[in-house]
Specification:
single chain, about 525 residues, alpha+beta, 6-stranded mixed β-sheet, 4-stranded mixed β-sheet, globular
Length: about 525
């Protein structure tokens, strides 16, 4: 048995409706899609044992495993996948990540109601074990999309029979390595090995428990007391002590993730670029990383992290060097000159010395956000003379508030669903569902459209670079740092596989004491 910390209680174990990495930690134990992510390269075969792509890179043909079974014993067929994808794209489903299927021909049109005949969408099942997918345009990263969450199929007969209740213990029918046996809300989720899984010989754990914790301190105590085998994170204040006292248990891995501040441009005075620029100029990112986070994160002076930059983006107009600020941006290092420029901008916007500036709300999620918010609050008070209030919500409530525009300045994370810079930057187009700043810019939209329709990798790289520069120049957001995962794990855990966008693969995972 393996006991893993779980920070956010899954709202749903339905791949069509799930949103957070925590949801998919459990979902990927219960179900799997055509392919699964591979932290070392292209996605690996899963439900599809092989595939080929047409010379024009538009049609992908997947050959499904004949021995893949749903946990109720039914074979997993191409028709099941078609039904699952139709459900994700049906407007009434309101799948939050349906856009990850928009690489498929006419999928966007069907999801937006412009097309009502699903047979016209680029999915075809010529036989029970073959699935053909025709894309809107050549997409070299297509397999990364096919490995993402909403591409994980559901058993359509079970969903039709039980409705929303299908994800409960006793009802859940999946095709993954484990079975759902227990779900105690806000306590734990328990899964056990699925004997019908085609690759059961590589599943060495009989049971995994996902145990819920509300905060890092409680989680830390539970680990030290032997109640869990791996944490999600480590309290910032204890990193140095663990480096000294438990170096073999402290793990570290870089992530393709950027933490940033979103400015709600619909809320004055954040609609004034001078105000946004002043706020960004006075962020001491290096001090935040060194003195507050203490977990080997890197200051962010651009949005896209190193692991998520366009192919060929080796010599770029954008720099990670704070002494060489990005063109037109306010994301260089906090210096005497930048602080003075910030004060002048704030005065020009009508708030000399911070006088008359409204008390805005700076919000984040979870107890772990509080030290970051406190540090930012102190920087703005010291350098600009302005006060911001701090408000911390539960993760889903925070994301919902930002999506609805019910916030002023929000601390949030960019965790890409797929390792594709195009997908990350598309979040900020005018109608993007994760455009938390509620920012609309015709120039940015055109650059992203150019990237989407580029005919060569070089053209796409140039368009994406220009789009990121435009985003940084117009300041609907301020990057803070490139995140890294620092966590605790018992030395006997072997075969741990988790990539830079928080996707896990449980195949091969085992406890040395029990298996070796």
């Amino acid at each position: 048995m393996l006991r893993l910390s779980q920070r956010n209680e899954p709202a749903d174990l339905d791949p069509a409706l799930a949103t957070l990495p925590d949801d998919f930690f459990v979902i990927r134990a219960l179900s799997e899609g055509l392919v699964v992510p591979n932290g070392e390269g292209d996605p690996k075969p899963a439900l599809a044992e092989s595939w080929e792509v047409s010379p024009d890179l538009l049609t992908w043909t997947f050959h499904l495993r004949h021995d893949a079974r749903w946990s109720n014993g039914e074979p997993v067929t191409a028709a099941d996948l078609l039904a699952s994808y139709r459900r994700v794209l049906t407007p009434a489903t309101a799948a939050p990540k349906a856009n990850l299927l928009f690489v498929v021909r006419y999928a966007r049109a069907y999801a937006t109601g412009q097309l009502t005949d699903f047979s016209a969408v680029g999915f075809l099942a010529p036989n029970p074990f073959t699935l053909q997918v025709t894309l809107e345009r050549p997409t070299p990263q297509f397999l990364a999309y096919a490995a993402s969450g909403p591409w994980i199929p559901v058993n359509p007969r079970t969903v039709d029979r039980l409705g929303r209740l299908w994800t409960r213990p006793g009802n859940f029918v999946g095709n993954g390595p484990f079975l759902l046996v227990e779900w105690r809300p806000q306590q734990r989720i328990v899964v056990r090995k699925n004997p019908l899984y085609y690759d059961a010989r590589y599943i060495h754990l009989d049971e995994i428990q996902f145990i819920h914790f509300d905060d890092t301190d409680t989680e830390d105590r539970a680990y030290r007391d032997g109640q869990i085998d791996a944490t999600m994170t480590v309290p910032y204040s204890k990193v140095d002590a663990y480096i000294r006292d438990r170096p073999t248990e402290l793990r570290h891995a870089p992530l393709a993730e950027t933490r940033y501040l979103a400015f709600n441009v619909k809320h004055p005075p954040l609609d004034d670029i001078r105000v946004r620029r002043a706020l960004s100029l006075t962020l001491d990112r290096a001090r935040l990383v060194k003195d507050v986070l203490r977990g080997r994160q890197d200051p962010a002076y651009r949005l896209l992290p190193p692991g998520l930059r366009p192919t060929g983006d080796l010599v770029s107009d954008l720099s990670d060097d704070p002494s060489s600020p990005n063109p037109g941006s306010a994301h260089g290092e906090n210096t005497l000159a930048s602080r003075e420029e910030a004060r002048q901008l704030l005065a020009a916007a009508g708030f000399p010395g911070g006088r008359g500036f409204p008390k805005l709300e700076l919000s984040g999620w979870g107890a772990g956000a509080k030290p970051v918010l406190d540090a930012v609050q102190e920087m703005w008070k010291k350098d600009l003379g302005i006060e911001v209030g701090i408000y911390v919500r539960e993760a889903r409530a925070h994301v919902a508030a930002m999506r609805a525009g019910g916030y002023d300045i929000g601390y949030i994370t960019l965790i890409p669903d797929v390792a594709d810079p195009l997908a990350a930057l598309q979040r900020f187009i005018s109608d993007g569902p994760e455009n938390y700043p509620h920012w609309a810019d015709a120039t940015y939209d055109q650059l992203m459209d150019n990237a989407l329709n580029a005919r060569t990798t070089g053209e796409q790289t140039a368009a994406l670079r220009a789009a990121e520069i435009r985003l940084l120049d117009q300041l609907p957001l301020a990057p803070l740092y490139f995140n890294a995962k620092t966590w605790l794990m018992r030395p006997e855990i072997k075969g741990w596989q988790e990539d830079a966008i928080w996707i896990r693969d449980y195949r091969g995972l085992h406890l040395a004491a029990a298996h070796e």
